[in-house]
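Query structure, 123 tokens:
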């Protein structure tokens, strides 16, 4: 998304919001841009035009979308995660699904617990 012009970004966000609305009845409350851990002014404007008040960033990216395998997804997550981290995971990938129980165990062993975004952001 960071390389899209304003018109294309707005169209992409609107298309995604419409797909979510069809699938689950709502576009959701937050927008997480694809292809970047941080939003840009163009992305934020496009998100706002589709009704998203907040863009969400992440600080842990185990690059699970590259399908490196469950062990690597787990170790990358364990190495990067800190209190308050937002982890970018893609549950459509088998290695991510396989790694998730271990990731949750690692969090617990570190004294951390997963929470919803609403809880983390205190909305």
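Result returned for the query:
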């Amino acid at each position: 998304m960071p390389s899209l012009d304003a018109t294309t970004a707005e169209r992409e966000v609107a298309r995604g919001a419409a797909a979510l609305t069809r699938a689950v009845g709502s576009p959701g409350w937050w927008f997480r841009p694809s292809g970047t851990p941080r939003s840009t002014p163009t992305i934020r404007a496009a998100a706002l035009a589709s009704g998203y008040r907040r863009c969400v960033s992440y600080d842990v990216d185990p690059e699970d979308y590259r399908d490196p395998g469950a062990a690597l997804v787990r170790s990358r997550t364990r190495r990067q995660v800190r209190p308050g981290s937002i982890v970018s995971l893609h549950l459509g990938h088998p290695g991510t699904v396989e790694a998730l129980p271990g990731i949750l165990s690692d969090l617990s062993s570190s004294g951390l617990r997963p929470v919803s975004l609403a809880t983390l952001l205190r909305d």
